[in-house]
Design a protein that fits this description.
2 domains; mainly alpha; two-stranded antiparallel ribbon; Herpes Virus-1; binds zinc ion; two-stranded antiparallel sheet; about 50% helix; about 180 residues
Length: about 180
């Protein structure tokens, strides 16, 4: 016999195969709708936006087979966001839409996916400036701010030195060209 069960959400009587398991009250379709709605709401929160940005950075690393250190977490992205007072590192406008991560030392140049090597930016600035080097992207004041920021990040003194010499190298290359 075809046993059916009533889903209290859509109020339809459906076969048991329409439920993920017999102890779930909502049908599969209603559970999927509810999950999508929860994800939609989560993606609008700061943590949700940070999580999307993290996934995007991991995709870039995978797609290009970059061998870089990668221990970035959603909490750390939220901290960076707070550090920059919820504004874009480039245009300094409040970030209201999607959050994107920008790597101070670009991933393609061996920069790590770590808290001390990222800033947050609005999507529009990230799209415009993603391939440019740090000396082209930031004026000296901003470079100092970014260095201070890296120093602020706990326990990554080594990277601050790496960053300082990297910035110096870029500036010298700019002068030479
Ligand atoms: Zn249902
Ligand atoms: Zn911006």
């Amino acid at each position: 016999m075809n046993e059916t069960k009533k889903c209290p959400k859509c109020e339809e009587h459906k076969p048991l195969t329409a439920f993920y398991s017999c102890d779930r009250s909502y049908c599969k379709s209603c559970e999927r709708t509810a999950a999508n709605e929860r994800m939609h709401q989560y993606n609008k929160t700061l943590r949700g936006k940070a999580s999307q940005a993290l996934q995007t950075s991991r995709k870039t690393i995978r797609r290009n087979s970059y061998h870089v250190k990668d221990d970035l977490t959603v909490d750390q992205i939220v901290e960076v966001f707070d550090f920059f007072d919820s504004t874009c590192a480039y245009c300094e406008q409040p970030i209201t839409g999607k959050v994107s991560i920008d790597h101070i030392i670009p991933l393609k140049n061996g920069g790590a996916n770590t808290q001390s090597n990222i800033v947050v930016s609005c999507i529009s600035c990230n799209t415009k400036k993603s391939d440019k080097e740090i000396a082209e992207r930031f004026d000296s004041t901003k470079q100092k701010e970014i260095s201070n920021y890296s120093a602020y990040v706990r326990g990554d003194d080594v990277l601050v030195d790496v960053l300082a010499s990297y910035i110096q190298k870029i500036i010298e290359e700019k002068k030479a060209s």
